[in-house]
Structure formats: structure tokens, C-alpha cells
């Protein structure tokens, strides 16, 4: 199986059909990341479009990609993040009312057992708390908790040092914990760093 580097070399030499293999490798991860970033603004229905835009931009800029600066996946996450931030700025400046944004809240169709309702409420509260974080803290938390990236990768994507990323994560987790403490008794994000140092 070819490495990302080999695929990129092939694409740069004219074998553009190889790009579909790169997309296949990263599409689900990038889509999930974009989805989580958009969730805070109730714009997750745009995730697929922005994911496609990310891969289109990456393809157009592949000639400028230099592996000495970052791995392909880190570079791709950076493009995805910038694409989402640009879209969010556009949405804010146009300030589209929620009811016109195409976002339709889905009501549960059947009665859910009490336990499941509580769990759903907790998940919603966590999402709401993450939504209230400053953008860099939110991105760092999503990349770490949902995408399981290591500190170095997150640092490159956010244009920060590793220690700044650790600080962002500490502040993000503290903020989420403080927002949820009045409602929850169980910890939301465990400090996993002791268990697995990546």
C-alpha cells in the first residue's frame, strides 16, 4: 500500500486519479471534525459541503504542500479548520436567522426511557458548554477528545506551541467542567493524559 507521500508524488506527476485514494483515507475524519466544529453554530447540515470544499482546496494547493512543514493529515485539518472559520464568519456577517438557515431540529419520534433522556440531556449540555468556548479552545478540545490527535498535530493545526495547546486544553476542560458542575455529578472529560501520553 502506498504512503501518503508516494500518493502525493504520483498526483504531482499527473496521476490525478490517485487523489481519490487520499480522499478515501481522510474523508470520514475530516467530515467528523467539520461536523463537530459546525455543531456549535447549528450549521452541521453544511458539513458535507465544507468537507468537499476542503478536499477541493487541498487538491488545488497540493503543489504548495511541503512535507517538511507538516504531515498531509495535519495540513488537511488546517485547511478544514480555516474553511469552517471562513464560513462561520460569512454566516455571522450575514447573520442568517436560525429558521432560515435550513437547520431543522428533529423531535424524538417515540418515548425514550428516562435513562436515555438523561443521557441525551447530558450530551446536549456538554455540546452547549463546548459551544460557549473561545474558538481555539473549542478546536483544541474537538481535535483531542473527538479526533484523538496528539499535541504536536494539534499545535501545527492551530499554529500554536505544544505548551500553548496543553494550556488551551486545560482551560477548555476547566470551563466545560465549571459550566456543567451544577448539573452533573460524573466527570465529563477525564484527564486521560496520565493513562496515555501521546
What does this structure look like?
The model is unreliable at 96-112 and 194-198 (pLDDT under 50). 63% of the residues lie in helices and 0% in strands. By secondary structure, it is mainly α.
Number of strands: 0
Structural class by helix and strand composition: mainly alpha
Helix content: 55-70%
- State the distance separating the first and last CA atoms: 26 Å
Shape: globular
| Number of alpha- plus pi-helical segments | 8
Largest beta-sheet details? none
The mean pLDDT is 80
Radius of gyration: 19 Å
State the order of secondary-structure elements, H for helix, E for strand.
HHHHHHHH
The unreliable regions are 96-112, 194-198
Q: Per DSSP, what share of the residues sits in E-state strands of 2 or more residues? A: under 5%
Could you state the oligomeric state of the chains shown? Answer: single chain
Could you give a quick summary of the protein structure above?
With about 200 residues, the chain is mostly helical. It is about 65% helix and about 0% strand.
Task: Give me the secondary-structure topology.
Blueprint: H1 4-12, H2 19-39, H3 47-60, H4 72-94, H5 114-131, H6 135-146, H7 151-158, H8 162-180
Helix pairs in contact: 2-3, 2-4, 2-6, 3-4, 4-7, 5-8, 6-8, 7-8
Q: What attributes does this structure have?
A:
198 residues, disordered C terminus, mainly alpha
